[in-house]
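Researcher: Here's the sequence for the chain we discussed earlier.
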Amino acid sequence: MKTTAIFIFIMTYILLLTFPKVRAYIALTSAALFIVLGILPSNLVLSVIDWNVIMMIAGTMGIVGLFIESKMPSLLADHLIEKMPNVKWAIISLSLFAGLISAFIDNVATVLMIAPVALTIAKKLKISPVAGVIAIAIASNLQGAATLVGDTTSILLGGYAKLNFMDFFFYQGKIGLFWIVQLGALASTLVLLYLFRKDKQPIHVIERTVVKDYFPTFLLLGIVVLLILASFIPNKPDITNGLICVILFYFGLMRKYLITKRTDTFLLSIKEIDFDTILLLTGLFIVIGGITEAGVVEDISLLFVRISKDNVFLVYTLIVWASVLFSAFIDNIPYVATMLPVTARISDLLGIEPTLLFFGLLVGATLGGNITPIGASANITGLGILRKEGYEVSAPVFMKISVPFTFAAVFTGYLLVWFIWG
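Model: Thanks. This is the structure I predict for it:
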C-alpha cells in the first residue's frame, strides 16, 4: 500500500509540473485514487481537508475582486507616483507599494493592479516597461509571507500550525515573520537601487484615478481588524478566520446587488474567486492525508533527519535552500502543503519546537519562487502582461533582476530566522 501511495504521489507532482493548466483536475484525480484504493479511509476524507483555509482563500479572493473593481489600488499608486522624481524611484516605490499591498491580498491580484501603472509610465516616457513589471512581480512574491492573508502559503501555515493574524508579527515573545520579511525586503530593495541606478528620466504627473466606491476598501480593512480581534479569543472554533472572510464577502455581494439590481451580480463576483486554487488545495489535502496515513510522511521526515545527522542547523539549512530550489521550478502551494506535515514530523524526531523549521520553510518556499519566470504565479502573470504589450522576456533577462533580489531576501530571512528562533 505504501509503494502505491508513493507512486501516486510522485506521479501527481510530475503531472502538476508538466500540465499546470489542469493542476486542479490532477490533484482531484489523485485524491480520488487515494480514496478508491482505500489508502485514505473514506471516513477521514472530510477531516483531512482544512476548511478554514479553503474559506479564508475564497472570502479574501472575493473581497479583493471588489477592491480592484473600486480602483482604489490605482488611486493609491497615482498618489505615490506624484511624489517620485524619476524612473528609478518610481520603479522602487511601485515595487515597495506592490509588496505592501500583497502582504494583505493575493500576489497575482497585486500584479494585475500595479503593473498597468508601470506600463503607463513607460509609454509616457517611451521606455521599456520590462524592468518595472519584473520588479513589481518579484516584490509581490516577497511580501506574501508577511501576514496570515498575504499568500496561500501563509494561510496554509497558519491553518496547520494554528497561527493567528498577530502571530505573524510577534510570536512567543519574539518578532514574527512580518518583520523578518520587511528586513528581507530592505535588503532586496538595495539590490534594485543598484540595478536601476542609471534610470534617471524625470516623471510627469499621471492623470489621477477616480474612486467612487470606498466600501470594498472598508471590507478589506475589516478582514484585517476582525482577524486581529479574533486572535485574542481563546478556544475559538477552528473555522473562525474562514467565517470572517466569507461573511464579509457576502456583505459585499449583497450591497453590490442592492445597488446594481443586476441578477448576475453574484455570478460575476464569484467568478473573481480562483476556484482552480481552491480545488487544487482540496485535492492536495486529501493526497497529503493519504500519504500520511500510509506512512510516507514519516519516511520523508526520517530521510531529512538521516541526511542532517540530527544536526538542527543542517536540517534547517536543508529545508530553507531545498525550498528555494524546488520553488524556483514548481508552484510553491503544493510544495508547502506537502512539506508542512513533513516539517512537523522532523521537529518531533529531533525533539525541537517546530517554529524554526516552519518559518524556514515559508522563507525558502515563498521568497524562493522569485528566481525563475515560472517559479510563481505572479511572475507568470507579469510576463503575460508584458507579452500582450509586445515584450517577450527571456529567462536570462528575468533572472538578471530576480536572482540577486531573491538571494538578498532569502539570505537575510535565513539568517534572521536562525538567530531569532534557532
